[in-house]
From TrEMBL:
Name this protein carries in UniProt: Glutamine--fructose-6-phosphate aminotransferase [isomerizing]
EC number: 2.6.1.16
Entry keyword annotation includes ATP-binding: no
Keyword field: Aminotransferase, Glutamine amidotransferase, Repeat, Transferase
Phylogenetic lineage: Bacteria, Bacillati, Actinomycetota, Actinomycetes, Propionibacteriales
Organism: Aeromicrobium phragmitis
Catalytic activity annotation: D-fructose 6-phosphate + L-glutamine = D-glucosamine 6-phosphate + L-glutamate
Length: 354
């Protein structure tokens, strides 16, 4: 049941700190030791990340962490594009799917098997077709998600996938075990970070909504490790509000999207504090954009306090906590527009057609 919450999405946003805590309780103790060996997979030199929508975003976030910390290269492919895309021979396919029943994903699994790729599934459903067909399964422990828009399963996939990635780095001796244990200890700070971000978004977002009710379209900008969270925020906004939302690497603005900006255009910026991004923000401001920054303490939607050692220690993870503010923004705007946030039009929780 949704209990005291107005809708399942609100409940599932709220559950993210406890879900992450559950993921870490389940997998944390084995990350530096038994976790990777339990999969029975060889240590790969390359990862092929496969999924759709939000699950693919989670996969990208995870692959970036394993690349950043241990240098394992990867490619990320939409499941529907696997059949028409060349894959790196011998690569381990990491296939992410909340439901484990997405038709595009299952079709990709067939193709990947034909090409000889072993498959590690990251799913929320241990009884799914994906879990049955994969060589190894990592569960994301998010509990049932009723809202069609993925929220808590996204954070659970990112943290569960990061645990999996760290276990690979330990097994491959790309990061030594004591350093892996330190990373795991840092991850135990994520629930507090998310709880802070949820509270801060609940305080800051309602005041923003009235000015956005008539905005036909939104531009989301990120760079580096924040890019994938900008993509996820734009996806949430479009599926819930039925408004256009484009996400771009901030540096791409001048190569086209800048033409979209007019007085009042909302531009949601994942602020990483860099000078380059500040220059991009100045550019859109000069054209009259309504800049909504997400991230630091002084941002429009604050997501972390700069003073906590905790927030600093987790920089290697990328700004996962910003996604919470973007989920709240999408939901609050959708509610104000009278949308059914648990059941957006035209969408299904489990997409069983290709
Ligand atoms: C977005 C959303 C979809 C799913 C996608 C994949 O909020 O829910 O983009 O992420 O349809 O679904 P799964 O993860 O079940 O394969």
């Amino acid at each position: 049941t949704r209990g005291v919450h107005p809708d399942f999405m609100a409940k599932e946003i709220e559950q993210q700190p406890e879900v992450v805590a559950e993921v870490m309780t389940t997998w944390g103790p084995s990350v530096a030791g038994d976790l990777w060996p339990s999969f029975g997979l060889q240590v790969p030199r390359h990862l092929t990340i496969v999924g759709c929508g939000t699950s693919l975003h989670a996969g990208r976030a995870v692959a970036q962490v394993t690349a950043r910390l241990g240098g394992i290269p990867y490619s990320a492919i939409e499941a529907s594009e696997v059949a028409t895309t060349t894959t790196v021979p011998g690569s381990l396919a990491v296939v992410l799917s909340q439901s484990g029943e997405t038709a595009d994903v299952l079709r990709a699994v067939d193709v990947l098997h034909q090409r000889g790729h072993p498959i590690l599934a990251l799913t929320n459903n241990p009884h799914s077709a994906l879990a049955r067909q994969a060589q190894a399964v990592m569960l994301c422990q998010a509990g049932p998600e009723i809202g069609v828009a993925a929220t808590k399963t996204f954070t659970a996939q990112v943290i569960g996938g990061t645990a999996m990635g760290l276990s690979l780095l330990a097994a491959a001796r790309l990061v030594d075990r004591s350093a892996v244990r330190r990373r795991v200890a840092e991850l135990s700070g994520v629930p507090d970070l998310l709880a802070y971000a949820i509270g801060a978004a609940r305080r800051s977002v309602p005041d923003l909504v009235p000015a956005l009710l008539d905005s036909p379209g939104f531009v989301f900008l990120g760079r580096g490790s924040s890019r994938v969270f900008a993509d996820e925020g734009a996806l949430k906004l479009k599926e819930l509000t039925y408004r256009w939302a484009e996400s771009h690497a901030a540096g791409e603005l001048k190569h086209g999207p800048l033409a979209l900006i007019e007085t009042g255009t909302p531009v949601v910026v994942l602020d990483d504090g860099s000078e380059r991004l500040a220059a991009n923000i100045a550019e859109v401001r000069a054209r009259g954009a309504r800049v909504i920054s997400v991230g630091p303490e002084q941002a429009t939607i604050p997501a972390r306090t700069s003073t906590t050692a905790l927030a600093r220690g987790l920089d290697w993870l990328g700004p996962l906590e910003t996604v919470v503010g973007l989920q709240v923004l999408a939901r609050e705007l959708a509610v104000a527009l009278g949308r059914d946030v648990d059941k957006p039009r035209n969408l299904a929780k489990s997409v069983t057609v290709e």
